Amino acid sequence: MNYDPIRGKTIQWSFEGPMGGKTYEHVFAHDGTVTYRTVESEAKKTPTVAYRVASITPAICAISYLGDMGYTLTAILDFNTNQLVAFASNERELSQHRGSFAVIADESDIPMRPRPTVRESRAQQH
Questions:
Q1: Is the pLDDT reported for residue 104 higher than 50?
Q2: Interior/surface letters 45-71, b for 16+ CB within 10 angstroms, e for the rest
């Protein structure tokens, strides 16, 4: 299993520039999905979508998911500085955003049930 430094965490992202003044709360579930919402509005959380994460170093990771409005968001989080760089894109546009983040809840220490390997899954089917 790949190291996933965000699984089980709730992280708030705040952006500078055109996205300044907005904070987005992301809840990264133990099942590899994410829900998110704008903190400043009364909007409900988005539908749950799958995310992918890749560790670059123990303190830096890349996260990507396809949002419900057709945008793919890819973000690089640096846990040493709490800074992030994000890219939002769809079939017509691409934008870059910088900001910061804070982990506001951490349930990652809750033990996960290990996922079966491909071999174990095949054996269970027969």
A1: yes
A2: ebeeeebebeeeeeebbebebeeeeeb
